[in-house]
Each structure stands twice: as C-alpha cells, then as structure tokens.
Amino acid sequence: MILSDVDIKKALASKRIVIKPAPNLDEQLGSCSIDLRLGNTFRVFDHSKYPYIDPAKKDYSNEITKVVRVEKGGAFIMQPGEFVLAVTLENVKIPADLMGRLEGRSSLGRLGLVVHSTASTFDAGWDGKPVLELGNLGRMAIKLSIGMRICAMVFEELTSPAQTPYTSKKFAKYKFQQAPEESRIHEDK
Q: Choosing from 63, 82, 103, 133, which is the catalytic residue?
C-alpha cells in the first residue's frame, strides 16, 4: 500500500519517516509522494582517461570519476548524452516497515532528464542522501539549479517489518551516504 499525502504528513510528524532538512510541505508534498531537491555534489565521469569501465576492478570507478561541488545558488549544466551521479539536498531515513521508491518528475522528463537508470528502490531501514543517476537523453543541455525539486519519493508499506533493515546489513554498501559515492560493485559477495 502506498502512503497518501495524509499518511506522509502523519509519518513525518511522528518521526516514522525523517527528512532533513524538513521539507516545505506546501511546495514539496504531492498526493502520494514528496519531492526532494537537488543537492550540490556531483560525481562526473572522465571518459577520456580509459577506453572502458571494468566493474570488477577494486576502486576503479573512483579513478574514472571526480567530485564536483557547486556553490549555493549555482547550477550544474548537463550536456546531451551525459550521465552523472548526484545527491538530494535531503537526508531520508525510512523505518523497517516501509520502503521508498524514487521517481522522476514529469516536467523534467519532458526535457529529456531521467533521475535514475536502475536504482529506484530504497530498502526498508534506509538512512542517507538518495543518490540520483542523472541522464540527459535530450539533444540540448539542461541547467540544473541547486535546490530545485528534482525527484519524488513514494513510500510503500511492507507486509511486516524487514528482519534485517538496510542499515543493519553487514555488507550494505551505501548506508549513511552523504555524497554520490562511486560504484562499489566490486564488493559484491
């Protein structure tokens, strides 16, 4: 069952869901989702250094990417065909009996911007800044302003609380992340 705006308000008020900084519900709350805003940290790929990506190589993705921080009030320009990692301004903490689903905003999708390529699910017990897998599918550059509403998060009830919430997992690769971390696929067990 997906939480409605009424249920999201209750979950925020009771601290069942914790979002920091606190969202402006008049601007960010939808009928069954809450908009999250674009943070100022991006991880961009330096595609001219290597001819391909080897996901199995330890720390390889850290070698082919660099972190870019944009000043408050600034913008990040996404070129056509570009793929970058970013984070939301908000930190989201989800309890063990809910999961989150990250969705793009239609108004930005109509410009060619996608906010996730595969990772839209946030496990029960998630705590951290959601990472965005931004892609510009269009033929024109898109200006992304820091603090703009970039995506929406939907919350879904689990039939029972997760036995092992995400932050309790021994091998959770991205728990408590505050920046767009590089891929840690080489840590797969």
A: 133
Q: pLDDT at position 13, please?
A: 98
In 49-83, which positions are buried (b, 16+ CB within 10 angstroms) versus exposed (e)? eeeeeeeeeeebbeebbeeeebeeeeebebeeebe
The pLDDT value recorded for residue 176 is 64
CATH superfamily of 5-48+59-158: Deoxyuridine triphosphatase (dUTPase) (2.70.40.10)
Distance from C-alpha of 38 to C-alpha of 132, rounded to nearest angstrom: 9
Average pLDDT, integer, range 181-185? 62
Domain coordinates of the chain in residue numbers?
Answer: 5-48+59-158
Tell me if residue 182 is catalytic: no
Whole-structure pTM value: 0.86
